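We treat protein structure as text, and this decision shapes the records that our systems exchange. The tokens are whole numbers drawn from a learned vocabulary of local backbone shapes. Below, we set out a record of this kind in full and without editing:
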Amino acid sequence: MLCFLSISSDISNHKNLFKSNKIDNNTMNRWFELLLGLILIAIAIYAWGMNLYGFGQAALLFLKGGIIWFVIMIALLLILLGISDIKDS
């Protein structure tokens, strides 16, 4: 019964029921994830810049291909939106 009263008071006070009041033990993991991400991005930029094992050329080709696919998808989206607008008129 006491638990129900506590929850009902949280609801009436518009508190987030899913947010814990305890100290989060995952704070070190967040810093580790951030550090690991920065290290990996530095390695990737170094490999691309120094063109180690041809990774720089491969990354550039992948980027060029990705830009073409992005333009194609935007074009298809605009065509579908245009057809939809014509149908609605």
